Amino acid sequence: xxxxxxxxxxxxxxxxxxxxxxxxxxxxxxxxxxxxxxxxxxxxxxxxxxxxxxxxxxxxxxxxxxxxxxxxxxxxxxxxxxxxxxxxxxxxxxxxxxxxxxxxxxxxxxxxxxxxxxxxxxxxxxxxxxxxxxxxxxxxxxxxxxxxxxxxxxxxxxxxxxxxxxxxxxxxxxxxxxxxxxxxxxxxxxxxxxxxxxxxxxxxxxxxxxxxxxxxxxxxxxxxxxxxxxxxxxxxxxxxxxxxxxxxxxxxxxxxxxxxxxxxxxxxxxxxxxxxxxxxxxxxxxxxxxxxxxxxxxxxxxxxxxxxxxxxxxxxxxxxxxxxxxxxxxxxxxxxxxxxxxxxxxxxxxxxxxxxxxxxxxxxxxxxxxxxxxxxxxxxxxxxxxxxxxxxxxxxxxxxxxxxxxxxxxxxxxxxxxxxxxxxxxxxxxxxxxxxxxxxxxxxxxxxxxxxxxxxxxxxxxxxxxxxxxxxxxxxxxxxxxxxxxxxxxxxxxxxxxxxxxxxxxxxxxxxxxxxxxxxxxxxxxxxxxxxxxxxxxxxxxxxxxxxxxxxxxxxxxxxxxxxxxxxxxxxxxxxxxxxxxxxxxxxxxxxxxxxxxxxxxxxxxxxxxxxxxxxxxxxxxxxxxxxxxxxxxxxxxxxxxxxxxxxxxxxxxxxxxxxxxxxxxxxxxxxxxx
Length: 675
Prior knowledge:
The protein is α/β, with parallel strands linked by helices.
């Protein structure tokens, strides 16, 4: 008997006298006791807001990213403990990998993105500087800083590990403490993973807390700096989002709800095409993985009308070969639903769908799961075919959250998009086509109704991630029925837990706030060339002014013949004069960049390791033979990359003999921390 505990204000709290028993979906017996203990929600919120939040905000994004990586490694080292109880949820080990490995992988991705795409600072700069006056003395900049409240994560039963970790990763990276509330049915697996997080000792006190059982009056105490992130049914989401405190305080509410996702087999596919085979393969996977208990599963299979019977026969045959039974039994490919209540709900929805479509696979007559009782929470893969999807209503509005899908014939691409859109908002729709025009037409017709469009064909190979696989790099959410929110999406996911603020002031003020040098802010000079200084020694705003160099006609012609760039503006005086941009023959832009490097580079060995990139290059004024150029090189920002070196971004400005700006760009160099 498992007895998962809550974690409140740094203390574990066991189930109380009124704990609720959890019935196992495989054995139909009690496997856990949950909740029943009074939890002090005031203490939880105070602990998060006054202890965990300040500790997280004192760190930089990179500090928090490093913790995420260490957490992922720690959980990965103990994942077999999670697999040991995964089968109690009804999931096979293969299904458990989607949950367990998927959650760990998401943390790794956010750790990497935090280091690569966010600064080693406490302020995230969002977008470019906006000049608000003519002189450049007053500027605007958007920034993002962590919310100073708490994130409450209310998770679904189907992914007890991934569901927690995919929300925690961007939340902690943002610098916001979290209170995790898993679904009761599978909370014991969430608690086992959460306990590992606490055991690791990597997070500061108050950064994470756990509620097993009911949330009590927690949501009634949410404020304007808090976030509630919910995954589950549309009915529950509607109930939660109307909590008076959330409305009164404009508390952020993120919802990822159930949706009637569609998969479209393109009209260019025939029964012998690779796209047809891919469609069948993914449909089987989406119907059977986690026993179809995925918010991203394919619920409606849209196929060309002339292929409907062919698809029905082929898919029925494949689904009929799926072995259903005890998740630990040899050869079993699909386990049980999460609970008997879930089974009852799915059977009721199957009956509703059956009023508009014929069942072609999945009869319960004679159904016998391997090494398990058919009266437990098992259902065979079930497939329907609807001959008149236009007249149907239930198929486009009722979701059986299990191994259930329906084949719908369509007449043309416009009809396919129309049917997909009748779901009124989905997390994902997929298109299996090799025709770019088909992909474009469906995108233009239906993208507004879907959070993600997954387009697969013969060319994607093994790189395709799968219709039902939310990736941490891409947003996970959708409009309408799908909840109207989004999660994940790389740094976009982090921004859900941060406040975007427009700051306005002088270049010096904005530079001090952002930690980045802004043109017009104070500069400093050092007698030692910056390329002879370590990453640590180089200061933001440190600047050098180079001596001038005159550009000759010989330079221009030599560069042209040496590189092969004999464009007429560099070689033909009369033709160049006819060009409205040039006064006559001019120097190559890349010749100017080469001369600039020669002016500011220190040739001797030093802490600078490599030039790794150039951003935002622009040319403002042509340079003719006889003109001279000089360079202003300024340290713009610094970002740690590894344990031995970091990236220094330099603002490079080229001016001519009249101090007019000729070109500007950002130079990236890798610089060692030590000599």
